[in-house]
Structures are given as structure tokens and as C-alpha cells.
Amino acid sequence: xxxxxxxxxxxxxxxxxxxxxxxxxxxxxxxxxxxxxxxxxxxxxxxxxxxxxxxxxxxxxxxxxxxxxxxxxxxxxxxxxxxxxxxxxxxxxxxxxxxxxxxxxxxxxxxxxxxxxxxxxxxxxxxxxxxxxx
Length: 134
Prior knowledge:
alpha+beta, 7 helices, 4 strands, 54% helix
């Protein structure tokens, strides 16, 4: 039996020039998201996010050169993927703060650095320094 239930996720084939985003980069994105939300008074961040989610990224991910990658489909995340990963998880966090703690524990202990949001959206976060994923 495979660890994640699907051979492609277990093998985690990534496009050439793309690597799994480090824990440090992802943690930095979390703090940068909060800062950007404050600086843009929230509404600017929401608008910016709505635009870039269609490209499989978020405002903080975009600044730090990261994308969401769907290993089963071998494609970058879509707007729906990003909603599952960020939007729905944000709503769940607002209802129950324990979800944030559970998500961070998953992120720190998972060899593919997947949070609860990543698991809900069946994706991983990658660093794409050469912008190969568009």
C-alpha cells in the first residue's frame, strides 16, 4: 500500500527546474500573507488573490516564486484548487483555531510538507524559480 494512496503522489514527479518548497519558504509565505493583508487593507489582498489564484498561486506565493502543483494531474493548481487550499481552510480556521495547529503539525511532519489545505486540494507547494509553470 502506498503512503498517500496514489502512486504519483508517492513518487512526486515534479517538472524539471521545479522543487518542493522548503519549510522556511512556506513559513515565510504565511507571515508575508499577513503583512500583505494588512498593507493592502485586506480588500486589496482579496482582489489580488482572486486574480492570481487562477494561476495556481497566492499573493505571497507569487512574491516568493511558489506555485501549487497537482501531482496526480501533473498540472499547476486552478482557481478551485486554490479555493480549497486557502479559502476554505481560512473559513475553517475562523470557526476553529485548533485546525491551524493541526495543519502546522501536518506540515512539519509530512515529508512532502503538506498542510491540511494541501491535502484537501490534493496538491503540493513547489518553488518555481525559473517560472516554468507559467
